[in-house]
Design brief:
By secondary structure, the chain is an alpha+beta fold. The chain has one domain: Up-down Bundle (Outer membrane efflux proteins (OEP)), CATH 1.20.1600. It has nine helices and six strands; from the N terminus they run H-E-H-H-E-E-H-H-E-H-H-E-E-H-H. A four-stranded antiparallel β-sheet has the order 2-3-5-6, with no helix packed on it. A two-stranded parallel sheet has the order 1-4. It starts with 5 loop residues before the first helix and ends in a 17-residue tail after the last helix.
């Protein structure tokens, strides 16, 4: 194999060393935005614990500051069927499957770009051609023609010397985009788990409300039957019968919408599980199946930005915009392409790798934009995109703080609502007990007993709603805090120096 002449070899080595020494990355380096400076989520301090009420779902709840939240936070509700439902959804949801595929696409796009950015491209070539020349084209009068074969084999190396870091910034942007898709997947998992948990609570609430409404309807129907008999005996006015008939039908009309909502909730659960509504076997939940978490985790605002997937995703977009601005700035600077080839060339195949057949070439090209008004406008556009990404990040953080504040206040206020509803239910049940005793002694009519039963059931509906709301409020806080999602591996998105 023929060696490179000393002078070109030394020249290229010196040029390469000089370029490497001056290699830089233009554009701003990404810096993680500062954490929120606020110390608390709400202006008024939270109470030491929420209000309490009788029953498992009425226990007081306390807030405990933690560094992170358990990934399987739904287990705090103490329901094995709920755990199975959430785990099934996380395994079979098409939404998560699509998010996982999108993440793989982003990661492979990064890997493909990294392969051509960080390393030279090397291509092997093997060719053969049959050629004819005419000596007249070289000024010879004979005009003789020569026919010959030409064989060649070579290895070519090409490399874009990223002197000002444009390629590295582009690679950095792709890495940030891959991280964005990872956080999107984390957020999809959190949302899916929260939707399944909330739908299970809704199903239990609607089922209990239907049972209570049917009990009210039964009591009203009994009242109507008694009034109709009294009317036939001339002991009641027809207006009494019509009034009770109106109440019966009004109550009857409230039940189908509740059943409709219950069926829709079951259909929602089926879809969340990745199943068709007609084929899914959805368990029937009751409020008694759940335990209210008595200790709720709370991360401080400065740590929330590391806990919530949506904030992390917004930060990844900000990182990508920063890198893309660097790409636009690098376009204003010279671009350097280097290439080299080494091979053999011969007129016969047998002599292709013989002595004296070696050929080589070295080439370098520098291109400096002299006039291109669009490049500066492109850099300005990228800078505006960076500013927009920064503002969007700030808005995402503010929205997250608001979500947590809303959830915390809801837990406190709805606990007080449940306390009042529980007191009302206790009073209604006591009133029903006294009326029942009076009826047994003949001191109260059957109509009075039915009225007391109806009032007790109506109060129970309000209690059911308050109990289900506290369960949902707790899930909303877990979701607002980021839900302790276990993220997958992220792509290193720092620029290659």
């Amino acid at each position: 194999m023929q060696n490179f002449p000393a002078t070109p070899r030394v020249m290229w080595m010196a040029l390469g060393a000089a370029l490497l020494a001056g290699c830089t990355t233009v554009g701003p380096d990404f810096k993680t935005p500062p954490a929120p400076g606020v110390k608390q989520y709400t202006r008024q301090a939270l109470p030491a614990q929420t209000a309490s009420a009788p029953g498992v779902l009425g226990a007081a709840q306390q807030f405990q500051t933690v560094d992170s939240i358990a990934p399987d936070w739904w287990r705090t509700y103490g329901s094995a069927p709920l755990d199975d439902l959430v785990n099934t959804a996380l395994r079979t949801s098409p939404t998560l499957a699509a998010a996982e595929a999108t993440l793989r696409q982003a990661q492979q796009t990064y890997a493909a770009q990294a392969g051509s950015t960080l390393y030279p491209t090397v291509n092997g070539k093997l060719g053969a051609s049959r050629n004819q020349t005419n000596t007249a084209s070289f000024g010879q009068s004979s005009g003789a023609t020569n026919i010959f074969n030409l064989y060649n084999a070579s290895i070519a190396v090409n490399y874009n010397f990223d002197l000002f870091g444009g390629n590295r910034r582009a690679l950095e942007a792709l890495a940030a985009q891959a991280n964005y898709q990872q956080y999107q997947l984390d957020g999809a998992r959190l949302t899916l788990a929260a939707n399944v948990v909330t739908a299970a609570f809704t199903q239990a609430q609607l089922g209990a409300q239907i049972d209570a409404s049917e009990a009210i309807l039964k009591a009203q129907q009994n009242q109507l039957d008694i009034a109709a008999k009294r009317f036939n005996l001339g002991a009641a006015a027809r207006t009494d019968v019509l009034t009770l008939q109106t109440q019966v039908e009004q109550t009857r009309a409230t039940i189908p919408p509740l059943r409709n909502k219950l069926e829709q909730t079951n259909h929602l659960l089926a879809v969340l599980l990745g199943q068709a509504p007609g084929a899914a076997d959805i368990p029937r939940f009751t409020l008694a199946d759940f335990t209210l978490p008595q200790t709720l985790p709370m991360v401080v605002p400065s740590a929330l930005v590391q806990q919530r997937p949506d904030i992390q995703a917004s930060q990844a977009l900000l990182h990508a915009a920063t890198a893309q601005y660097g790409v636009a700035v690098s376009n204003l600077y010279p671009q350097i392409d280097l290439s080299a080839s080494l091979g053999t060339q011969a007129l016969t195949l047998g002599a292709l790798f013989g002595p004296g057949s070696t050929v080589w070439a070295l080439a370098g090209q520098l291109a400096q934009p002299l006039f291109n008004a669009g490049l500066k406008a492109g850099a300005n556009a990228a800078e505006a995109s960076l500013q927009a990404a920064g503002a969007n990040y700030q808005q995402t953080v503010l929205q997250a703080l608001r979500n947590v504040a809303d959830a915390l206040r809801a837990l406190d206020n709805d606990a007080q609502t449940l306390q009042a509803q529980a007191a009302a239910d206790t009073s209604a049940q006591e009133s029903l007990r006294l009326v029942d005793q009076q009826y047994q002694l003949g001191a109260a009519s059957y109509l009075q007993l039915l009225t007391a039963q109806q009032q007790a059931q109506q109060t129970r509906i309000g209690l059911i709603s308050a109990q289900a709301q506290r369960l949902a409020d707790s899930a909303a806080l877990y979701q607002a805090m980021g839900g302790g999602v276990v993220a997958g591996p992220h792509v290193a998105a720092s620029a290659v120096k």
